[in-house]
Design brief:
two-stranded antiparallel ribbon, 4 helices, elongated
Length: 155
């Protein structure tokens, strides 16, 4: 009988050891995963700080960081590509909310703003104006068109 008791004690002890080792291994794996997750979070925060710093200083720190100029150029290229993509898709940008709408749409599907071609109005009015007055007229007309559009929206 002693023999069977010793075997059962040995098996119970081995089972406890194996169970503890499994818990330790799962704890190690969980901690490694948590560490990796926190490192990824820190990297995203670094990137966000960099983005915010760039936005805050993009105009007043010319020449300080070459990377800031590269970012500025890349953003301009992205905007040009977006415009080209919209053109290829037959779309334009809503001046009110910035969403894409069809070139022939009368109203924005997102915010409901009326799509007006300000440039046609401006070009028609400034066609015969002296060149030095053209820019001032364009600014005034665009302001009037925006005011009128806001009044229409309020009604």
């Amino acid at each position: 009988m002693d023999f069977f008791n010793k075997i059962s004690e040995t098996l119970a002890s081995a089972g406890k050891d194996a169970s503890q080792k499994a818990k330790d291994l799962s704890g190690v794996a969980k901690l490694k995963l948590d560490i990796r997750s926190k490192k990824d979070y820190v990297q995203r925060m670094y990137a966000e700080i960099g983005r915010q710093y760039y936005e805050d200083h993009k105009d007043d720190m010319e020449g300080c960081y070459e990377e800031m100029e590269l970012i500025k150029e890349a953003l301009e290229v992205i905007e040009d590509m977006k415009k080209e993509l919209q053109s290829l898709k037959g779309e334009k940008t809503c001046p009110r909310c910035g969403e894409s709408v069809g070139e022939d749409d009368a109203y924005c599907k997102s915010c409901g703003a009326k799509m007006e071609d300000d440039e046609i109005i401006v070009d028609a009015v400034t066609k015969d104006a002296p060149e030095e007055e053209t820019e001032e007229i364009k600014v005034e007309i665009k302001a009037e068109v925006k005011e009128t559009a806001e009044e229409v929206r309020e009604d």
